[in-house]
Amino acid sequence: MDRYWFLTWTTYGTWLPGDERGFVSPVEGDTGRWVRHNVPDTPHDSDIPELKHWAAQSLKCAPVRFVKDQADALLAQFQETARRRGWLLLAVAVMATHVHLVVGVEGDPEPSDILRDFKSYGSRALNRRWARPASDSWWTESGSKRKLKDESHVLAAIRYVMQQEYPLVLWVAQDYFAELICRENGERGA
């Protein structure tokens, strides 16, 4: 694989603009113009209660929260999507309100395309078995796309996925994970 990505995205209505945990969404800047604070390694916006209240009032339906059967369907679809695309799926955690995924890809496809494919095919799998939410989307817009620089970052991302609290589904490519651990331990012993 040429590139590795750590992807994270949330379900509809569960992480709103204005959230105290932080968010990336257009906000009015000092000059009165709308700005989006989304440059990596720079501060983002957080804790704007009025904006969060407005966003909550604007929801088309209740926030989407997955159950175990839906998480199982998503995992199967993520595995199928990766297989068909020739990608190496390394770790997946599906929680009630968000997904974490570590994937390796050949070449250098746009990370937005990778994220879009997982979300789109995941939506199709859910739509086949469950009624679409009134929002017409299972997901929030976009998601986090972090490029993993080297094996140590891939290993750290996999470990992060494995440490998620209350996953509905947790899956790791055990052979690949074990290989990374062995290499890490071999490098330390040298």
Question: Summary?
Answer:
The chain has helices spanning 49-58, 68-85, 111-129, 151-162, 174-189, and strands at residues 3-10, 27-28, 34-35, 88-94, 98-105, 144-148, 169-172.
The H/E string reads EEEHHEEHEHEH
Please report the first level of CATH classification, the CATH class: Alpha Beta
Got a strand count?
Answer: 7
The CATH topology is Alpha-Beta Plaits
Q: Which regions are unreliable across 5 or more consecutive residues at pLDDT < 50? A: none
Q: Count of helices?
A: 5
General form: globular
Average pLDDT figure: 86
Number of domains: 1
Quaternary organisation: single chain
Tell me the fraction of residues in β-strands, as a range. Answer: 15-25%
Q: How can the largest sheet be summarized?
A: 5 strands, antiparallel
Helix content, binned percent = 25-40%
The CATH architecture: 2-Layer Sandwich
Class inferred from helices and paired strands: alpha+beta
Q: How many angstroms separate the termini?
A: 26 Å
Radius of gyration of CA atoms, rounded to a whole number = 18 Å
The order of strands across the largest sheet is: 6-1-5-4-7
Q: Give the CATH superfamily.
A: Transposase IS200-like
Mind explaining what this structure looks like?
By secondary structure, the protein is α+β, with helices and mostly antiparallel strands. It has a single domain (3-11, 63-189), classed as Alpha-Beta Plaits, CATH 3.30.70. It has helices at 49-58, 68-85, 111-129, 151-162, 174-189; strands at 3-10, 27-28, 34-35, 88-94, 98-105, 144-148, 169-172. The strands form two sheets. It has a five-stranded antiparallel beta sheet, sandwiched between helices. The longest helix is centred in the middle third of the chain and has 19 residues, at 111-129. The model has no long low-confidence stretch (mean pLDDT 86).
